[in-house]
Design goal:
Elements (H helix, E strand, L loop, with lengths): L1 H4 L4 E7 L5 H11 L3 E5 L2 H13 L4 E4 L4 E2 L6 E5 L8 E7 L11 H10 L1 E9 L4 H10 L3 E7 L29 H13 L2
Parallel strand pairs: 1-7, 1-8, 2-5, 2-6, 3-5, 6-7
Antiparallel strand pairs: 3-4
Amino acid sequence: YGSTRTLNRHFVIHCGGTNSGKTYNALEALKKSPKGVYLAPLRLLALEIFQTLNQAGVHCTLSTGEEDIVVPGATHMSSTIEKLNLDEFYDTAVIDEAQMIADIQRGNAWTRAIFGVKAKEIHVCCSPDAIPLLKTLIEDCKDTFEVHEYQRNTPLIVEDTQFKFPESIQPGDALVAFSKRMVLSISITKILSF
C-alpha cells in the first residue's frame, strides 16, 4: 500500500456497544463529505446504507459482489468490505464492524481496508475490544487518530430463560445469520416446525 502511505490520513474511531450511535455518527460525517465510501460486513447492511444515503439526497452506488446498482452521478459508494476499490480516492470512508478484523475467515478484509483505503478521513466503527489492535495498525501506518466512546441509549436486557430454536421464536423477533448456508438452514427449520 505504498501510495496510501504517502497520504496524511486521520482516523476517527467510534467504539461502543450495539445501538449506541457509532454508525449513525460515522454516517453523518459521510453524508457531509464530497466523495465517500461505506464498507459493510454484510450485503444487506450495504443495501440499507445505500438506501439511507440516497433517501438523504446523497447520490450513492451499491456494489456487493452479488448486486451492483449504479446511480448516475453518484459521489458515494456503499459496498461490502471485500469490494473496496484500493485505487479510488475518497474524502471520507466508513469501515463498519471493525471488530471483525479478528475473524479467522474474513478479518483480512478489514486489515486490507485499514492499511489500504485512500481517504483523508476514515471512520471506524467497532466494539471496545478492537481498540488496541486498531491503534497499533494506525500507528504503524504513521496516521493520526481520535477515539469517541458511546454508551447505549436504551438498556440491554438479557432474558433469564434459555433460547431454543425454533420454538422460542416470538412474533417480531429478528434472527441474524452471517452466511447463506445459515439463512437457508434457519428458514428450512422454521418452515418444517409449522
